[in-house]
């Protein structure tokens, strides 16, 4: 083996491992970005709004699951179908957030900083679990096996789905 061939193999291995590390990090980056968005939203707008957002996630999903006009949404191409379904869910969630924001008053509710961090993380994982099991995300984007292990199993969906509600039960006073 010449020095050039050896260097080429090292370069190939380094590139392969760098791409693998970046792909793994990028999937966890999605969770981190969602977590950060929810945390900053709660930090700047108010912690009671995080409770409203989490409750709106559930209410939006309930109406989304019973939505009678799903056949009118586009089914192809995959990205258009994904954006249409996510847009419908986001719109329903926004409507329920506005309603719940009027009901959940910050004077009667307290969530500490630790609770805000935990609830933001649970909200982010809730959205990833929805992406796996409700929206056709896997047709558009392929997650790494590490994220697949956490979210792809049908048995885990129930726990990811109920985690924010359990967190609210214990952390919101």
Measured on Cα atoms, how large is the radius of gyration? 20 Å
Overall shape: globular
**How many strand segments?**
0
Compute the number of helices: 6
Query: Mean pLDDT, nearest integer?
Result: 82
Helix coverage percent of residues?
Answer: over 70%
Largest sheet data: none
* Strand residue percentage: under 5%
Report low-confidence residues grouped into runs of 5 or more: none
Order of helices and strands: HHHHHH
SS-based structural class?
mainly alpha
Q: What is the distance, rounded to the nearest whole angstrom, between the alpha carbons of the first and last residues? A: 68 Å
Number of domains: 1
Can you describe what's shown?
Keywords: Membrane, Transmembrane, Transmembrane helix. The chain crosses the membrane at residues 28-46, 53-72, 78-100, 107-135, 155-172. It is a single chain. By secondary structure, the protein is mostly helical. It has one domain (28-171). It contains six helices and no strands. Helix 1 (3-45) crosses helix 2, helix 1 crosses helix 4 (113-133) and helix 2 packs across helix 3. It starts with a helix and ends with a helix. The model has no long low-confidence stretch (mean pLDDT 82).
């Amino acid at each position: 083996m010449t020095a050039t061939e050896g260097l080429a193999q090292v370069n190939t291995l380094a590139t392969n491992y760098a791409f693998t590390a970046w792909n793994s990090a990028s999937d966890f980056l999605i969770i981190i970005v969602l977590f950060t968005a929810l945390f900053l939203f709660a930090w700047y707008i108010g912690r009671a709004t995080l409770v409203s957002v989490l409750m709106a996630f559930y209410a939006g999903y309930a109406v989304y699951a019973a939505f009678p006009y799903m056949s009118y949404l586009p089914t192809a191409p995959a990205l258009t179908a994904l954006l249409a379904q996510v847009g419908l869910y986001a719109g329903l969630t926004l409507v329920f957030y506005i309603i719940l924001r009027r009901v959940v008053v910050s004077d009667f509710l307290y969530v500490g900083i630790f609770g805000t961090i935990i609830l933001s993380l649970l909200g982010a994982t809730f959205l990833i679990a929805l992406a796996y099991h409700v929206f056709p995300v896997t047709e558009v984007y392929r997650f790494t096996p590490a994220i697949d292990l956490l979210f792809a199993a049908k048995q885990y969906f129930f726990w990811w789905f109920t985690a924010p509600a359990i967190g609210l039960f214990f952390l919101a006073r």
